[in-house]
Amino acid sequence: MDIQRIAQKKNIIILGAGFGGSACARTLEDIRRAHPSSFQDLNIVLVDKKNYYLYTPSLYEIATTAADDAAPLALKRAVGIPIEDIVARTAIKFVQGNITYVDLGEKKISFEDGTVLSYEYLVYAIGSEPTYFGIPGVKEHAIALKWLEDAIRIRAEVKRKYDTKLSEEALAVVVGGGGPAGIEVAAELIGYVKKLNQKTGKNISCSPIIVDGGAHVLAGFDDFTVTKATARLLSVGVRIKCGFVIAHADEKAVYVKPAPPPPPAAGSAAPQEQPATEEALPYDLFIWGGGVQAASVPSGDCLIKEKRGRIETNQCLVCTPTGENLEITKKVFAIGDVACFTDPKTKRAMPGTAQVAAAEGKAVAHNIHQAIEGKPQIPFVPKASYPFVIPVGGKYAIAKIGPVRFSGFSGWIFAQLVELYYFYSVTRDLGVIRRWWRDIKIFTRND
Ligand SMILES: Cc1cc2nc3c(=O)[nH]c(=O)nc-3n(C[C@H](O)[C@H](O)[C@H](O)COP(=O)(O)OP(=O)(O)OC[C@H]3O[C@@H](n4cnc5c(N)ncnc54)[C@H](O)[C@@H]3O)c2cc1C
């Protein structure tokens, strides 16, 4: 991209081309087409260090696919849409680069290679990164499932460790965290190892164990989803160790101990603390799906952040400045995993999900247009609930759309349709159907 040409106009810069940033850019493009005069002096610029949009819900498939022809490039194509395809046939400009500093006073962003771009409007959409809560040994010994490279590494490690096993031995896998990513990969790994057994004639067993400090997997999900997921996990051979936290890990084992009891109710005496005995869970592969924190780009301490590093926003998704200098953030927004927007109805921060990021991205696009037109900002109104789908091994998933809940093969079909919807919504190109169909063929080879 010719930076000089970009510099000739004022820029709306969207930092991050993930779920939130891409939705924001596409919506701005729609608004620009409907109101071209509003944008005649403005560029829409999408910035990302990667050159592809990553469809994270299918990462577990990458980590576990048994397809022989699944070279890293084919795997990348299965979950990554080139940003070139997203901006094709639009006025959106894409700049690839790692942003290292945002100067909110001077309204400039700096890239690792020294390039500087100025902005008129700025949207933080840089997402999140794994957090290990300071548990000794976890960062060093676990593979977190967050990026494409992680999924490819997990797949390669499973195969490498599998190849060192004699028939009838077990492949020991410990998964830290019983959230959606943890349970998806644990359940699907069993299918991967079975497929490897079919190819090699070995009889290696694999019963991944999920460790979670909560009372059950999928904390925060409704009873229907938790019950169905637990039953499905157990039926495919996943072991669940809830009520235990990881104390530390080394190169051989993950050491767990009972989760501390919840704090006593006001007025009642605190229970006597028992010294917790640790249990060692030896592993061949340790996968971490225990949590994320906001990604960060230094901005000179000008923005208020909460304890997980998310940028606090007002109801219109405008960032909250630390000082009195409200001008600094007047045209600066945050969306998705990096943002902390408090739902006025529940008084709770919105969860970090793809749907929330995309909805916030669309809302910010409209607010930027409002600002260009000199009109007041529109508060973001989150839905009471967003649909979700959680695959749990093979062609089985648990889904919820509004009040309707379903599970099994119909849930799996829904998961595939959601993927197609996202691919189409960012590219607006029916050619994605071919890509989607090819992915299904690669990913169903374990089933
Ligand atoms: C394994 C896994 C499975 C998931 N499954 C689901 C699911 O089924 N349903 C669901 O709703 N959510 C799911 N999520 C959560 C979902 O992926 C996130 O909530 C969503 O991606 C947040 O969107 P975002 O736009 O805030 O960030 P992202 O989509 O992460 O995008 C951030 C972008 O910013 C870029 N970036 C970051 N820092 C810089 C920098 N310094 N310079 C340049 N570029 C930068 C990154 O490269 C990235 O492209 C899953 C997450 C994981 C890890």
Which tags fit this structure?
single chain, 447 residues, alpha/beta, FAD/NAD(P)-binding domain, 2 domains, five-stranded parallel sheet, 12 helices, 25 strands, globular, binds flavin-adenine dinucleotide
Describe the structure.
This protein has 447 residues and is an alpha/beta fold. It has two domains: 173 residues, 3-Layer(bba) Sandwich (FAD/NAD(P)-binding domain), CATH 3.50.50.60; 153 residues, FAD/NAD(P)-binding domain (3-Layer(bba) Sandwich), CATH 3.50.50.100. It has twelve helices and 25 strands. Strand 7 and strand 8 form a beta hairpin. It is globular. The site of flavin-adenine dinucleotide has 32 residues, from helix 2, strand 2, helix 8 and helix 10.
What layout of secondary structure does this protein have?
Blueprint: H1 3-7, E1 10-15, H2 19-34, E2 42-48, E3 52-54, H3 59-64, H4 72-79, E4 80-82, H5 83-87, E5 92-96, E6 99-103, E7 108-111, E8 116-118, E9 121-124, E10 128-130, H6 138-141, E11 143-144, H7 148-163, E12 173-176, H8 180-200, E13 209-212, H9 223-236, E14 239-242, E15 244-249, E16 253-258, E17 279-282, E18 285-288, E19 292-294, E20 311-312, E21 332-334, E22 339-340, H10 354-372, E23 388-391, E24 397-401, E25 404-408, H11 409-427, H12 432-443
Parallel strand pairs: 1-2, 1-9, 2-5, 9-21, 11-18, 12-13, 12-18, 13-14, 20-22
Antiparallel strand pairs: 3-4, 6-7, 7-8, 10-19, 15-16, 16-17, 23-24, 24-25
Helix pairs in contact: 2-10, 11-12
